Amino acid sequence: MTGRVAIIGLGPGDDRYLTREACDALDAADTLFGYGPYLDRVPARDGQTRHGSDNREEGARAEAALRQAAQGASVAIVSGGDPGVFAMAASVCEAIATGPETWRALDIAVIPGITAMLAVAARAGAPLGHDFCALSLSDNLKPWELIERRLEAAASAGFVIALYNPVSRARPWQLAKALALLSRHLPDGTPVIFGRAVGRPDESVTVIPLASAEDIAADMATLIIVGSSETRVIARDGRSPLVYTPRAVEKVSA
Ligand code: SAH
To answer: Which of 29, 79, 203, 211 could tie 188 with a disulfide, CB 3.0–4.6 Å?
Structure first.
């Protein structure tokens, strides 16, 4: 007897962003685990049970799913976007690394999804056309000093930077501080993209120069892409601008 754990990415929004593989894996599961609002996106199926939990209980959720799979069940754990990007796939691996030996015998499948960074980039044009990196601004799982060091290193090395988890009720000041820090390394006109609830009915995308970025409201459903000094904006009459980072860089800036 081996149980199965599928860790499934639902994509950023509605079911247009669900891959066929994710649909099949959802269908095959006896039990679904996940953060309540993500579970709500999955159509109900007869005979399938659901365990919704709070977003901060990722470790406990991973362990509960693994315990059930170890009894022979086929379980699915759902994440928004991609499950490997600041999400459940790493929590499941952490639980397996420290858990009972029997968990290593389980069939584990990670089913990818479209991560928020790619969905927002696609709306804006091609801001990730050259080298880029992704950072979570949340200091729940790492010290703020480390976030500052990484932001400075990324901006000064010329990476376009995708910022996940920019703001929450418990973290009101971090985004303004991060933008101020980036402003010390990047030109005032550097394009910044705020993509909110992309792929959902209330989606919005705003492109603004770095010097004015602090005027834009962000929340937990917002992903921010901060350009590099190479990132450009093509203004278009009656259409939203196209933001892109050219694929080639000729000079090495100091
Ligand atoms: N696993 C997810 C990321 C989880 S971290 C993924 O791959 O997308 C949660 C953060 O993702 C949010 O704070 C926000 O920054 C971003 N995010 C998730 N869905 C989003 C959406 N539809 N539009 C914009 N940003 C989103």
So the answer is: 211
Tens digit of each residue's pLDDT (9 = 90 or more) over 140-167: 999 999 999 999 999 999 999 999 999 9
The answer to whether 114 touches 40, Cβ cutoff 8 Å, is no
Give the Å distances, CA to CA, from 153 to 116, 156, 160. Answer: 23, 5, 11
Element (H, E) at 155: helix 144-156
User: If you measure from the C-alpha of residue 86 to the centroid of ligand 1, how many angstroms do you get, rounded to a whole number?
Assistant: 9
**Which residues, in sequence order, are bridge partners of residue 232?**
244
Beta strands in 42-144 (DSSP E): 49-53, 74-79, 107-111, 125-126, 132-136
Q: What's the pLDDT band for 55 if we cut at 50, 70, 90?
A: confident
Reference 34, options 93, 92, 78; nearest CA is 78
- What is the pLDDT confidence band of residue 61, given thresholds at 50, 70 and 90? very high
C-alpha 204: how far from its chain's center? Answer: 17
Residues with a CB atom less than 6 Å from ligand 1: 12-13, 79-82, 85-87, 115-116, 120, 164-166, 195-200, 220-223
Pocket test for ligand 1, best of 117, 223, 225 (most atoms within 8 A of CB): 223
Q: Residue with the nearest Cα to atom 6 of ligand 1?
A: 81
